[in-house]
Amino acid sequence: MNPAASQNRALALDALRGLAILAMLLSGQLPFNENALPAWMYHAQEPPPLFQWDGHLPGISWVDLVFPFFLFAMGAAFPLALARRLENKTSPGKLILLVVERGFLLGFFALFVQAIRPYTLSHHPSSSTWLTALAGFFIFFPILARLPEPWSLAAKLGIRSAGWLAAIGFCACVTYPDGSGFKLERSDIIIIVLTNMAVFGSLVWMLTRNHLVMRLGVLGIIFAIRLSNLPQPVDGWVHDFWCLSPLPWLYQLYYLQYLCIVIPGTIAGDLILAWTRQTMLPPGLTMPCRWSLARYLLLTLTLVALVLGLLIGLKSRWLPGTVLLGFGLCFIGWVLLQKPLNDTERLYQKLFHWAIYWLVLGLIFEPYEGGIKKDHPTLSYYFVTSGLAICVFIGFSILIDVFPLKRWLRLLIDNGQNPMIAYAGINNFITPVLALAGGSTLLSHWATTPWRGFWKGVLITLLMAMTVSFLTRRKIFWRT
Fold first, then answer.
1. Is the peptide bond before 49 cis (omega within 30 degrees of 0)?
2. Number of C-alpha atoms within 13 angstroms, CB side, residue 163?
3. What DSSP string describes 241-287?
4. Which pLDDT value is given to residue 287?
5. What pLDDT band is residue 4 in, cutting at 50, 70 and 90?
6. 345 lies in a domain?
């Protein structure tokens, strides 16, 4: 395998992240009215027809996988990005500053992306609302876009300053339907959680990068704090610590429970990083022998069956059969991954062993807290979704490296490399453009049935995905 091929594992990680972000966008475009789809197409705790949160309703749907998959991919990317900087002699102090800078940019993104959304600006958007939302979207580019290296420092500072001044001016002048202006409390909770994970997840990996046991110890501490406060808080200093927050709009200890997904991601990232170093073979050498394509196909089908089987079984509450099916498929996967013939197959074997561990742990915790739930997240949810994320990652890796089908996954990969443009653009670029061009009216008149509403959502998501792919291929990235 040549050096370029060693980047394929990062492409599989990009594909996982791309799947998560596009599925997240699609879930927000589904019909939430009398033309609702079946319950398994929505968050399990917010089923149709009322879409009211029910914290006693157990189970997960495909929509409930997208956020943990994104978190897992974020955690897996920490070793790949931070280790490279450490190897380039970046001092720990400077690296911490870079982590804090990333947290600051994500915190700003969480505030500004919520501030510029059309339906935040107005309950009944007009042409001026759509144009304002578009302007807000384009303000992101001078602030977040990676500027070309050859550009002078003065040019870069000028562009950044212009973007920040425009953002500050927007926030100073904007007025919302309730008559209020910009508020720190008005933010995107998903990005706020990602901000906390980007900072604390990076710091945890940096402090424990050579000590796996210590990292698992950190996970144990988070685990213990979580058990002391949820599902029922216990009075005492741990609960007081849980409630303490100097910046409640940005940080709450409650958010750190998602490290139970990010830390498993960092463990996978360490294995991927080690693999990339092992497979840097000199030019002229080819990949060692490998398993047959039939074996890889059977392994891929086993991974697909494991994801779908657990998803359907846990949502339908067929618990004994689902657990037995999960354990059986884990055993089949374990057998198929015996006797690896090269470094890539050894990576799959190690990753799947961790997937088995997280899945078994999550399934054993399933009865606790009234069954697996995304909202409020249960211990079972953290670990089951971490195991499933590994399964999807291995599946993407096989499709990219073995069969190979990279070009069929190009859209996922491109969006996984530029997820924040996709996240902001679905509401602040595609929707306004369609509304101003009259496309939204046409689509609304056509989408008169539940499944037409679904295909409308697919079309809008696909338009956003293609836009991001266009920007990614032209090396236009946002730094978050």
1. yes
2. 20
3. HHH--SSTTT--GGGGGGHHHHHHHHHHHHHHHHHHHHT-PPTT--P
4. 55
5. very low
6. yes
Count other Cβ atoms within 10 Å, centred on residue 51.
Answer: 12
Tell which residue, 426, 428, 387, has the closest CA to residue 267: 387
Give residue 243's pLDDT: 83
Taken in order 380, 381, 382, 386, the sign of the CA dihedral is positive
CB-based contacts of 370: which residues, under 8 Å, 6+ apart?
Answer: 56, 58, 231, 378
162 token code pair = 């212009």
- Establish if 272 belongs to a structural domain: yes
Cis bond before residue 239 (omega within 30° of 0): no
Are the C-beta atoms of 96 and 151 separated by less than 8 Å?
A: no
Helix (H, G, I), strand (E, B) or coil at 145: strand
Domain assignment present for residue 480? The answer is no
Nearest by Cα to 397 from 126, 5, 2, 4: 5
In this predicted structure, the answer to whether residue 18 has a pLDDT above a threshold of 60 is yes
Calculate helix-pair angle for 66-87, 379-401, nearest 10 degrees: 70
Pair of tokens at residue 24: 């997240």
The answer to whether the CB of 126 falls within 8 A of the CB of 225 is no
Is 479 domain-assigned? no
Question: Per-residue confidence at 177, pLDDT binned at 50, 70, 90?
Answer: very high
Looking up tokens 């999550």, which residue turns up? 362
Q: The dihedral of CA 125, 127, 128, 130: what is its sign?
A: positive
- Number of structural domains in the chain: 1
Alpha-carbon Rg for the chain, nearest whole angstrom, is: 23
Its domain, for residue 12, covers 3-473
- Specify whether the CB–CB gap between 245 and 251 falls below 8 A: yes
Instruction: Report residue 130: phi and psi, to 5°.
Output: -60, -40
